[in-house]
Hints:
Elements: H1 3-40, H2 50-66, H3 71-92
Helix pairs in contact: 2-3
Amino acid sequence: MSPLKIKKLNKIRSELDKLDNSLIYIIKKRTNLVKKVLALKDKKKQIVDQKRIKTILKNIKIKSLKNNIDPKITNRIWKNMIWSYIDFEKRNFKKK
């Protein structure tokens, strides 16, 4: 790789690192909201809402296409995020 390409690569990676830092902040905010949702649930079976999951994934596909993003990427990201939070909720559910 040429020195110029290395310089460009490092600049892009620096931008990616900054973006990752922003994503961490957003994930923290999302986690706090999930904790509030979890506090409202009375039964563990309320954690998984297939209808809501389907709606979320459908909306993400529409938004992805509208923004010229490969929907396979966003679908995989959101599915992983949803199931990660479902796991989080199951681990943190406390019977009332």
